[in-house]
Inverse folding.
């Protein structure tokens, strides 16, 4: 009987990373720095711990939501096969994703940009990035990469200081839902990502129209000062 060590190694690495993050976080929270450099180092550790924990939590929530959508609506196999459980997990994970949307919105553009890079790699190779045995049409990969690039561009305004409005939050959560659908059903991949892009574009347009009077007043003020 053969024994696959890859899952064991993967679990060991994840446990080691989680343990390191936990130790760093405990040190940052309860350690008492004795100098200004120590205080600065503590602040960096806290920020890093928050970022690392947020990334891990984001992967867990999005992965759970994608898997639950696949089981609940498309009958895809997963670790759990109960549709009621899938609906409960989907609801809980999407609720948490929505509650924390202000925190993760600023990272979405970079993450989608990374997806665009994968699309370009698939267009050049003609197969999936992580599975050379599965071919993919180059035209489809190029279209997916193009949609990803455009989506990343309309997400550039989601910065640390940007306060999301209601339309932004709806568009972002909608993008997550469309992403889950596209991941689970290959034929819906491009249409789902396109709909997600349209939603974010409409939110961008709403933001522009909402702030148009402010920009107009600023332009008039700069003009008067120049004159």
């Amino acid at each position: 009987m053969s024994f696959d060590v890859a899952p064991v190694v993967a679990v060991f690495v994840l446990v080691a990373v989680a343990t390191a993050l936990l130790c760093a976080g405990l040190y940052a929270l309860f350690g008492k720095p004795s100098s200004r450099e120590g205080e600065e180092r503590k602040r960096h550790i806290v920020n890093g711990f928050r970022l690392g924990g947020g990334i891990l939590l984001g992967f867990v929530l999005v992965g759970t939501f994608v898997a639950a959508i696949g089981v609940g609506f498309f009958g895809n196999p997963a670790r759990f096969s109960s549709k009621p459980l899938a609906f409960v997990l989907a609801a809980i994970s999407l609720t948490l994703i929505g509650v924390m949307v202000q925190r993760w919105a600023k990272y979405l553009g970079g993450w989608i940009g990374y997806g665009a890079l994968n699309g370009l790699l698939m267009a050049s190779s003609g197969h999936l990035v992580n599975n050379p045995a599965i071919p993919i049409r180059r035209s489809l990969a190029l279209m997916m990469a193009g949609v990803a690039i455009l989506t990343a561009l309309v997400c550039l305004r989601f910065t640390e200081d940007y306060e999301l409005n209601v339309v932004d939050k709806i568009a972002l959560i909608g993008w997550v839902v469309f992403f889950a659908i596209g991941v689970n059903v290959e034929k819906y991949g491009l249409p789902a990502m396109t709909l997600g892009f349209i939603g974010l574009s409409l939110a961008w347009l709403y933001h522009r129209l909402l702030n148009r009077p402010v920009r107009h007043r600023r332009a008039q003020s700069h003009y008067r000062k120049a004159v």
User: Anything to note?
Assistant: The CA atoms of residues 70 and 88 lie 13 Å apart. The helical segments are 6-30, 36-74, 83-99, 101-125, 138-154, 166-184, 189-210, 212-226.
